[in-house]
Amino acid sequence: MTLEFRVPHDVDTDAAPATSARSAAGVAPSGRAGLGGLLDRLAARRAAARDRRLVAHLHELDDLQRLLTNARGVVERGWIQHSWFAYLDEHGRLRKASSAAAMDVQGRPLVAACIVGAVVSAAGGPQVVHSQQVQRALDLVWHALAADEGQPVVWCPAPDIRMARVRDLTTWNDGPSRTAAEVSSLLLTAERVAVHESERVAARRRPEGAR
Fold it and tell me: 59-108, pLDDT tens digit by residue?
């Protein structure tokens, strides 16, 4: 047996004017009209924009975590001190490059890298050394070195502070008793920092029902 539901024609005709009247009166979906409805819509737009920013930050943190994993792989294949990179020149000779000569490495077989050079290499090489991705990855590594794990990361420090932090990392890398295993371990800690940041950002997102 098939049940067939029919909607009376007069329900359709009665409902349409009501909807139009509400729209003409400027009544918001929440039922508030006028200025209150406008404020509700503006608040909803701001909340949606904030949520989009948080989602974008989550994607960025995922990318940074992968970059740091790749940087750890660079160090595990070869690690050096007192230079950013070790590479083979066109004659197959081993060369070293400091930060000032980093572009000499471009297109050359990479043999080893310090902790900063490893991050730069994992991000694509010396041509991206000033990119936001590299700078923010180094923010995570410095945080892993100098801050308590679980504390929020301070992003986008002033340029002179960021340069000082890079010097902190290279000085630590070049310590007389430093080992490749310790450098690899610090990069692993930086990966965990990225995970903690992702959890913190995810907790700030609006509940599904609030959209």
Answer: 899 999 999 999 999 999 999 999 999 999 999 999 999 988 889 898 89
Contact of 140 with 193, CB cutoff 8 Å: yes
Burial class (CB in 10 A: 0-12, 13-18, 19+), 180: middle
CA proximity to 134, closest of 209, 63, 78, 82: 63
d(CA 164, CA 5): 74
- What is the reported pTM? 0.73
Residue type, 115: I
Q: What share of the chain is helix, strand, coil (3-state, %, to 5)?
A: 65, 5, 30
Helices and strands in the chain: count of H runs, count of E runs = 6, 3
